[in-house]
Amino acid sequence: MRCRALLLLLPSALAFELPFKPKPRPIPRCVHTPDSRHWRGRSWLIGRFLDLQAQERFGLDVQVDVYEKSDYVGGRSTVVYPYGNASLPELELGGSIFVTANKNLWRASDEFGLGRRDFSDEDESTGIWDGQEMLLSFSGSWWDTAKLLWRYGFLSPRRTENFVRALVDKYLTLYNSDSPKWDSVADLSATFGWTEIVSKTALEHLRTEGVSDKYINEVVDAATRVNYGQDIDYIHALEGALSMAANGAVGIAGGKLPDIREIPQPLACQRLSQDTAYM
């Protein structure tokens, strides 16, 4: 009802605006030559990959206009320097790993010859810490597997895996030529049948899947905190499931993208440090 009331007020509000000329908006500056300060992270890599695909498959000469509120492109997928000292090795701030389900990023790393670092090959162990003691450690041995089964049973891990796999399989259809058309995230969620799971917390939904509270609170909650910094009783079920879909995660070898001058650049106009209200 409140939304309807607001919609009814819109024509009146617009009518009051018509007699007045809108305040002219300054044209954002255009940066034509990308450099490592502006173009970093997976957003640039995927964008460049799709640009090249459009040129090769359809013969399109694509010009990319980028509107960005901050003074660089990439959001959290960027790098920082310790203590602001550019002479020190840079560190990735976010978006540093991806999986095979991230098809565009995976193909882009192949397209540009970027080596991938497979974290599963490293001789490391995983542990669950509850703030006071180490509840469990796992390095992949048969004995560790037995300890996992003893603590959590067989059904809870399997039910969680089945739930996650079903969501990932549905997500992968987005890469098909007959993928669903959608105008908003809500439309896509409804098409995939995800409306219910995004309206419930991961804790609530996994319980309905028959997953034990011990497995939810110790394993899944640990994953949501590491990947998204959110608790299991706060994050919605879809994102909670995705935090468990990081098996086989890789990163760009060396922990960063190469100098972008090594990769052909698009004809691009970057409008940085600008708020964009609408397009």
From TrEMBL:
Give the protein's cofactors: FAD
UniProt keyword Glycoprotein, yes or no: yes
List the signal peptide residues.
1-15
Q: Which residues form a coiled coil?
A: none
State the InterPro entries in the record. FAD/NAD-bd_sf, Prenylcys_lyase, Prenylcysteine_Oxase1
The family database entries (SUPFAM superfamilies) matched by this protein are listed as: FAD/NAD(P)-binding domain (SSF51905)
Species of the source: Agrocybe chaxingu
Task: Write down what this protein is called.
Answer: Prenylcysteine lyase domain-containing protein
